[in-house]
Amino acid sequence: MSMNNDMLEAYLFEMHSLLEQLDDLVLAAEEAHTFSQDDVNEIFRIMHTIKGSSAMMEFNSLMTIAHRIEDLFFVIREKTMDAISDELKPEMFDLIFQSIDFFREEIEKVETNQPLSTSIDTFLDKINSFSAKISGEAEDEPAAPSAQPGSAPTAEEAAFASAEFPFGLHVYFDEGVGMENLRAMMLINSVKDYCEESQFDYYPPDVQMNPETANFIIDNGFYIRFRTAGDREEAIPAVKDNGAVKNWQVFDAPEASPAPAQKAAAVAVEPEPVPVEEPSPAPAAVQQSAAPTAAQQSAAKQAHVKESLISVSLSKLDSLMAVISEIVITEAQVTASPDLKGLKLDNFTKAARQLRSLTDNLQDVGLSLRMVPVSATFQKMKRIVRDMSKKLKKETNLVLVGEDTEVDKTVVDSISDPIMHIVRNSMDHGIESDRAERIAAGKDPAGKIILSARQTGGEVIIEVIDDGQGVDDDAVLNKAIRQGLAQPGAEYSHKDILNFLLMPGFSTNTEVTEYSGRGVGMDVVKSNVESVGGTVTITSERGKGMTTTLRIPLNMSIMDGMEVAVGDSIFTVPISDIQQIFKVSDINIIQDATHGEMVKIVDNFYSIVRAKEFYQLNGGVDNLDEGVLLWVESGDNSFCLFVDELIGEQQVVVKPLPDYVNNYGIKNYGVSGCTILGDGSISIILDVATIYSSQNN
Asked: 617: exposed, middle or buried (C-beta count within 10 Å: 0-12, 13-18, 19+)?
C-alpha cells in the first residue's frame, strides 16, 4: 500500500484527534445517560469525516465501519434519543466504544505497516442488528434499489446506454461525500478486481483527470457498462461493498440481449456527450460576485480561526531546539571568552547583555512551542477507569486536577504509559471489590481515583491517589522474600517495603488477569520515568489508599545550573535541586554510627557526600570550612554535597552522554549528562537522586 507520506501523516493526525474527541464525547454522554442532539450531529459528522478520509486512503475496513456507524446515527438523529429505551442505551454506548477501539487498532496497524482487518462481518452484523432494534425494522438490511437485468432503462439511463457495453450499473454516491470524481475512480479500481478492464467502460470517461466531472456525478450519477451480463454480475460486489455508494440501479441498453451472439449485430450508438452545465444555484465557491450569506460569513470566520493554528512536525521542533541550544552555547563562548579578561569594553558589555536577553527570549519561545497540556493523557484515563469499572465490577470515579499543566511533548509521550499503568494498579489492586467493605470502613461505596498535575519550579509533579485498601506490608514483604529481594528475619521499614513494588518483575497478584500478574509491574513505570529524568515515589496507608508521585522535568534540553568546582574539575548541579547553599566548620559536623558525616539543618540531620571522595578526584579541599555545602533534594532524597567553591549560575544546554560512555554504567554514579561551558570546556551534570542512592548502597 503506497501513498504520499505527508498525506498519511495528515490522515493519522486527523484520526487521532477525532478519536480523542469521540472518546470524550461518548464518556460524557454515558454519564448523562443520553446523547444530546448536538452530540448526535457531532458524532455523525465525525463518522462522515472518518469514512471519507479512510476511503481516500483506501482503508476499506475503517471506511465500512464508519459508514455503518454513520448510518446508525442517522437513524438515531431521525428517531431522536427519546425513542430509544433505557434498556438499549448501555448496549448503544458499548457499541460506540467498541467502534472507537476498532478504529484505534486499525490505525495502530497503519502506523506499524501491518495489514488491516479483512474479517469485519461479525462487527458489522452487531451494528446492523442494533440499528434494526432501534429502528423497529427487520434486521436484514434493505437491499439497494435495483432492477432486474433486462428491464427497460429510464430515459436518463437510455441516454447513457451503449451498444458495445449494453449491460449497465447506475451508481449514486452519498450526498456531500465530496470528491465524487476520485471516488468514482476508486470504484473503477475495485471493479477491476472482479472484471477484466477490456470488458467494461464507464461514463464520464475522464473522472481521474477532470475535477469538473464531480458536478456531473452529483447531478446524474456514475455509469459503469459491461460487455456481458455475467461480467456485470461478477462486478456487483465491488459496488455493494463500497462505503461511499448510497444506492445503485441495474439497467440494459434497449438493443441489449443476454445472448452473446447478438452483440456482433448490435449497432454502436454511443450517445453524444452531455454537456456538464453549471448547476443552479452555483456552489458557494464560485458565487464570487454574489453577496455572502450569514452562513458563509460564519464559515469564513471559522476558516480564519483554523488558519491561526498549524501542525508542525516534532522533528522540526527538535531541529529548532538544536539550533537554539547551539546559539546559547555560542553566546556563552563569546561573552565569557578569555581574550576579554581585563578589558574595559562598555559597549561590548551592553551589547552582550542585550544578546543574553534576546537569547533567553528565543529559548523561552522555542521551549513553549514544545509544551503541551497533559489533558490529552489525563482524558485517556477516563476510558480506562470506565472499562475496568465494568469488567471488574468496581464502581469508581476518576477526578482530574490540573489537566491544563503543560509539559514538553517528548515528556508527555513518555509518561502516558506509566500513568496508565499506575491507574490500572489502583483499579486492580487498590479499590476494594466489596462495596460492603468500603461502607464498613466509612468510605463512599464508589471508589475514587484522583489524577493531578502541578508545576513547581522546573518540574511537574503528577500524583495518582486512590482511596482503596492501601498496601499490605506483610504480603509485599513475604513476596519479596520468596523472590529473593529481601532477607528473612531482617528489619525493613514501611518505606523500604514500598520500594519493593518498584523492583523488576514484582507483582502481588497470585494469578494472571487482563490487567496484572504477568511480572510486568511498577519497575516499568520507574524505568520509563527515569528515562526522562524523573523520579517515582510511593506512599501508602493501610485501609486508606495509596499515592504514587511522579516528579518530571518540564523539558530536557536547556536548564539553569549552578557551576561548582572540585579541584580542577567543574560540575553542574541543577538549580531546581538546590535548597540552600552555606558554609560550615568541622565543629558543626556529627558522626553517625557508620562513621558517616551529618549536619543539622532546620531540626533535621542530613548526610554529607564529599564530591572529591565520591568521584575519587586527586585535587580538591578536605577541610569543610574551606569549601561549600549544597543542600540538595530530589524526590524523597535529601543530603548535602560538599564542593570546593561556587563558580556561578549558568544557563546550560544538556548534552546526552555518548553510548560508549554509558556502556560503563556511569549514569549509576550520579552523572546525567554533560554541557559545554563558555570557554569550550566540558562540565558534568550531576544527578542528585542517583548520587544519594549510590552513596547508600
From this structure: middle
Write out the E strands in 156-304.
167-173, 200-203, 222-226, 245-252
User: What's phi and psi for 225, nearest 5 deg?
Assistant: -125, 140
Q: Residue 457 carries which DSSP code?
A: T
**Does one domain contain both 608 and 646?**
yes
Do 459 and 546 meet the contact criterion of CB atoms below 8 Å apart?
no
CATH of the domain at 453: 3.30.565.10
Query: Looking at the structure, do residues 684 and 581 belong to the same domain, yes or no?
Result: yes
Question: Helix 5-32 and helix 37-56: axis angle, to 10°?
Answer: 160
Tens digit of each residue's pLDDT (9 = 90 or more) over 402-418: 988 888 888 888 888 88
Same structural domain, 522 and 382: yes
Which of the four pLDDT bands, split at 50, 70 and 90, describes residue 401? very high
Range of the domain at 169: 155-270
**Same domain as 484, residue 452:** yes
Residues 358 and 384 in one domain: no
**Alpha-carbon 592 to chain mean position:** 50
C-beta separation of 279 from 287 below 8 A? no
Contact 525, 536 (CB under 8 A): yes
Report pTM: 0.61
Instruction: Give the span between the Cα atoms of 563 and 683, in whole angstroms.
Output: 8
Residue 610 CA to residue 270 CA, distance in Å, equals: 96
Which residues in 241-267 are b (16+ Cβ under 10 Å) and which e? Answer: ebbbbeebbbbbbeebeeeeeebeeee
Decide: residue 310, CB within 10 A, 0-12 exposed, 13-18 middle, 19+ buried. Answer: exposed
Question: Is the CB of residue 59 less than 8 Å from the CB of residue 47?
Answer: no
pLDDT digits (tens, 9 = 90+) for 241-269: 777 788 888 888 776 544 333 333 333 33
Q: Could you identify the residue written with the cell 554535597?
A: 641
Residue 297 lies in a domain: no
- Together in a domain, 381 and 524: yes
Helix (H, G, I), strand (E, B) or coil at 329: helix
10 Å CB burial of residue 376 (0-12, 13-18, 19+) is middle
Q: How many domains does the chain have?
A: 5
What is Dmax (Cα atoms) for the chain? 119
Q: Which residue has the higher pLDDT, 50 or 263?
A: 50
Q: Mean pLDDT, to the nearest integer, of 500-515?
A: 61
452 band by pLDDT with thresholds 50, 70 and 90: very high
Q: Are residues 496 and 587 in the same domain?
A: no
DSSP letter (8 states) at residue 182? H
Strand 535-541 relative to strand 545-553: parallel, antiparallel, unpaired?
A: antiparallel
Q: What size, in residues, is the chain?
A: 697
Residue 463 CB-half CA count within 13 A: 17
From first CA to last CA, the distance across the chain in angstroms is: 54
Q: Specify the CATH number for the domain of residue 71.
A: 1.20.120.160
Average pLDDT estimate for 93-116: 90
Shared-domain flag, residues 127 and 192: no
- Cβ atoms of 110 and 116 within 8 Å: the answer is yes
pLDDT above 60 for 292: no
- 623 neighbors 538 (Cβ within 8 angstroms): no
Question: Is the separation of the CB atoms in 419 and 377 below 8 Å?
Answer: yes
Residue type, position 371, single letter: M
What tens digit of pLDDT does each residue of 564-591 get? Answer: 999 989 999 988 888 899 888 877 788 8
Residues facing 634 on adjacent strands: 637
Q: Which residues pair with 167 in a beta bridge?
A: 226, 252
